[in-house]
Amino acid sequence: MKLANKKILVTGSNGMIGHQVVRLLKERGADVTETDLPDDLRDRDVCKRVCEGQDIVFHLAGIKGSPIRCMESPASFSVPMIQFNANMVEAAYNAGVEWFLYTSSVGVYHPAEVFVEDDVWKTFPSENDWFAGWAKRIGEMNVEAYMKQHNWNKCSIVRPANVYGPYDNFGEWSMVVPSLIKKAHENDVLEVWGDGAPIRDLIYSEDVARGMLHMVENEVTEPVNLGSGNGVTIREIAEIVSDYFNKEIVWDKTKPMGDSKRLMCMNRTKSYGFESNVNFEDGILRTIKWYESNLK
Prior knowledge:
Radius of gyration: 19 Å
Number of helices: 10
Mean pLDDT: 92
Structural class: alpha/beta
Strand content: 15-25%
Number of strands: 12
Largest sheet: 6 strands, parallel
């Protein structure tokens, strides 16, 4: 699949990964259409309109938030995501696009030492990702249903790990990396929830974007993980951030920590010729410098 001169729609183009996907597509010579709010993808007519005339659709739009927000406001995640994921695959198929990429999540997995693609349907999502995880799973199922019913072998499904980088959400409901950066910048000490022991698979947003393009270019039709395959602890992340800002770390062990370990198996992804290449420390420092240069 060649991307040059293709008409390509990117939903969620203003997001952390979306910015990188748009940039890389333009570098390849693609004719990119970006869509984000106020385009409401819960409206089927909107999805039909934005897909018309497109050759390829990168469906990145999603609702991101911290584990505690998922627990406190689950309907704000699951309901709209199920709606716009179903609408987008329907619209893309009806528009006759050459390829459709669906962005799933690490949240589809049940807690395990290592997340393997084919294990998803043997278990349930973690309680920490229950509603959002099921919404992403249902999105995958809808894509696979279209592929099966219509012999539409023109879809890629990617499951990014814990993504971070420029254009991340540094607001109230941010994830671990942007949350630590913001707290270290704004406070005299860096308060971190838990004891720092949980292990996460971090992947820089540019690497995720490269992986997405790689799967489309190589016409990969089975779900693939997009991670580093290397675990880092919350403590290691916090220490990089605290060292940069020269702030003492204060551990609040009364707060929830989430799953103890979330690590991607990258064997399938590597078999298709893709690996991440941004070291997590370098990526965090790049993210900090972007944050500092974009403070308002």
